[in-house]
Amino acid sequence: MTKIRMTENRPAGPISTRVSPVTRRRFLAFSGVAAAGALAVGATRIHWTDLVAAAERTPLDPAAGVLVMVTLYGGNDGLNTVVPASDAVYSSARSGLAYRPDEVLDLGEGLGLNPGMTGLHKLWGSQELAVLRGVGYPKPDRSHFRSMAIWQTAAPTEAATTGWLGRWLDATTTDPLLAVSLDTLIPPMLAGATIAGASLPIGGIKLPRTALGRSLGLLGRSDPADGVWQARAATSIADLGAVQRTLEPAVRPPDQTPDPDEDENAQGASAGGQSELGRQLDLVASLIELGVPTRVYSVSLGGFDTHSDERGTQQRLLTELDRALSTFQARLATTDRGRQVVTTVYSEFGRRVTANASDGTDHGTAGPVFVLGRGVTGGFHGTEPSLTDLDDGDLRAGLDFRSVYASLLGSVLGAEPGPVLDGWEQRVDGLFA
């Protein structure tokens, strides 16, 4: 298969604040992985009935690990997420963007969580949140598309045509239901050479709230006079209604019907009401509780390309992230299957140390990764990057993201990391008990 190198029409350095918004659609459209991987192998778009049937046919082992990958598109500012608020260099470099020590949620070692992350702060206190500091890769690229492709393929030195979890699928199964994306398109990380994960769009089930919808409901009623095929059709319609009633709260609030083609809604740019990420994670929790045999879920939140007016925008998005994750974790804690779930939160890069002239920050390099779950060793992992020993104004990565993936493959999915990660075996010490 021909390798397609992904590029972006701008220099790999600090860029102008006048940039078009980065969306999943743009990333997927430009990604060589999406073109050569997921589309080439015919990625599967599934329906609720496929998952319900799979849960009945081959239910998830309550002891099996489940991995949920949360992608923050746009490049989340790590320094205003895990905040070195007591560091004078941070305060000086950021001026109006910097948080004071009394504004952040204390984590120790002079660091604090963004004030919008109260739920994750509670999980930190109960040792269910691991903060991996200074995560990145060698020779960082400040292009959104190239950097995200590197994270999703785990190939930092050359273009790749398969995603890291796609290669895990290639070695594990022929069933696309083993990995499910709640996006409208398959993210490159789930694209293998011979198989890709399945796509389950968040608005995938909906009987119309009209006369037509009511008529369809009536067709689902049984009648003793029905023939065999009529009875089967009625049962199918009734089952569809039952699935909708069960899952609709997780799929979409009754008073909100966003356009699935609207990038801003698809990216979770609005934090009003129940968030897009919250709906995605509600649905993931429902599927896990049903016993769907999926081992990997991909969800996402966008809007983190904060070149201007960053402080308010990012805190709103982090509050949305926090609410969705903490609600998800609380629900998972109530079932055996839920307690086997590990959730990982990452972004394609952090931001530069020094603020720009528009009350924002430009594309940077290393940043924090969050790993949540009952099996995780909570606390700090990795060394906090120096704010004075910089690489051309950027943080130096101290922890290679492939070590994070190796730990997830080995401890959550029960796979040897080397064959998936091109020989990379090193893991994050002590991340899992």
Q: What is this structure, in a nutshell?
A:
This is DUF1501 domain-containing protein. The protein has 433 residues and is α/β, with parallel strands linked by helices. Helices cover 34% and strands 13% of the residues.
Q: How would you portray this structure in words?
A:
- The chain is α/β, with parallel strands linked by helices and 433 residues long.
- It folds into 2 domains: 338 residues, 3-Layer(aba) Sandwich (Alkaline Phosphatase, subunit A), CATH 3.40.720; 45 residues, no CATH class.
- Helices cover 34% and strands 13% of the residues.
- It has 14 helices and 13 strands.
- The strands form 2 sheets. Strands 1, 2, 6, 7, 8, 9, 10, 11, 12 and 13 form a 10-stranded mixed sheet that branches. A 3-stranded antiparallel sheet has the order 3-5-4.
- Strand 4 and strand 5 form a beta hairpin.
- It is globular, with a radius of gyration of 22 Å.
- The N terminus is likely disordered.
- This is DUF1501 domain-containing protein.
List the helices and strands and how they pair.
Layout: H1 24-30, H2 32-38, E1 44-45, H3 48-57, E2 66-72, E3 82-83, H4 88-94, E4 105-108, E5 111-113, H5 118-125, E6 129-136, H6 144-153, H7 164-172, E7 179-181, E8 198-199, H8 211-219, H9 228-251, H10 263-266, H11 276-290, E9 296-301, H12 310-332, E10 341-347, E11 367-372, E12 379-381, E13 399-400, H13 401-411, H14 417-420
Parallel strand pairs: 1-8, 2-9, 2-10, 6-12, 6-13, 7-8, 7-9
Antiparallel strand pairs: 3-5, 4-5, 6-11, 10-11
Helix pairs in contact: 5-12, 9-11, 11-12
